[in-house]
Design brief:
The chain is globular and about 70 Å long. The strands form two sheets. Strands 1-4-3-5 form a four-stranded mixed β-sheet. A four-stranded antiparallel β-sheet has the order 2-6-8-7. By secondary structure, the chain is of the alpha+beta class. The termini are far apart. 37% of the residues are buried. The protein has six helices and eight strands; from the N terminus they run ααββαβββαβααββ. α2 (41-49) runs parallel beside α4 (158-166).
């Protein structure tokens, strides 16, 4: 089963220079500089309670031409060329966002969002954008970074990030798995046989089941490669994009986590529930 990692090409060796000026005058790169973030006021306050400070809003982008692939009319099958394209484009965006975080000396990126948008250049051209807020631990020990020494990435909110640290764990990486799948068409006879009847559409069920499982397996493989112990916040989204009604992308995402050593665990801050029994008659 292919896991669709990144492939080597000239585009992947190119790094954008447009953000250099902004990053050079952002907290983490210049003493006394201002930070930027997409955090709400509540999230900013919670981040401080968790022992972290924001450094800068970080962005990664890739405009990608998605090729064509045609599936057989009556057969369920993965469209692996399209799967590879959707994987590579997202990896490029995520890698460039993480590079901006590394430039600021961040320990991680919180609140990661990964979205797509179209421009007027054609339906087959998509921009993949990854954004988040680079953060640094106030203790400055680097214990919260990913096992490879780089900044962790996470789509958790600041509230969930705080609770995760309080539970003695830390994010490792925002992980994903994708599968673009062609769902077989029904024949005329199949459609006629089920007309007016309650009946499971086995062919459709099988196709959707397999596509979703492929996406989830690939997400789990990314977490294993990142040396994580588990994944939280798993979500599976289904989109048709530009391919028509029988070609569908299944995208599984989540935040891979690992356990922290005891000395880096947040002190207990959540009040324990109590029961008060009144003695008045």
């Amino acid at each position: 089963m292919p896991l669709f990692g990144s492939s080597s090409n000239d585009a992947q060796t190119w790094e954008p220079q447009a953000a250099d000026s902004r990053l050079a005058h952002t907290a983490g790169a210049e003493p006394g500089a201002v930070f930027t973030s997409d955090l709400s006021v509540s999230e900013y306050a919670l981040l401080g309670e968790a022992g972290f400070e924001p450094l800068g809003f970080v962005v990664g982008s890739s405009i990608y031409h998605v090729g064509l692939q045609v599936g057989r009319w009556s057969q369920n099958a993965e469209l692996d060329t399209l799967t590879q394209a959707m994987y590579n484009a997202r990896e490029l965006a995520m890698a460039r966002m993480q590079s901006e975080a590394d430039h600021l000396g961040a320990d991680g990126v919180v609140g990661v969002t990964l979205r797509m948008q179209m421009y007027a250049w054609g339906q087959e051209v998509l921009e993949f954008v990854a954004t988040g807020t680079a953060v640094k631990a106030l203790a400055g020990e680097g214990a919260h970074r990913a096992p490879d020494g780089r900044a962790f990435t996470s789509d958790l909110s600041a509230q969930d990030f705080f609770r995760l640290l309080a539970a003695g764990a830390v994010p490792v990486a925002f992980v994903l798995g994708t599968c673009v799948y062609h769902i077989a068409h029904q024949s005329v006879m199949q459609s006629l046989r089920q007309a007016g009847r309650n009946q499971e559409m086995i062919q459709f069920t099988q196709g959707v089941y397999e596509a979703r499982e492929l996406a989830l397996v690939r997400m789990q493989a990314e977490a294993s490669q990142a040396h994580a112990s588990g994944i939280v916040g798993v979500n599976v989204a289904v989109s048709n994009h530009i391919w028509g009604e029988h070609a569908t992308e299944f995208l599984a995402t989540g935040t891979a986590i690992r356990r922290l050593s005891d000395e880096h665990r947040l002190p207990a801050t959540t009040p324990k529930p109590t029961f008060t029994l009144g003695l008045d008659s």
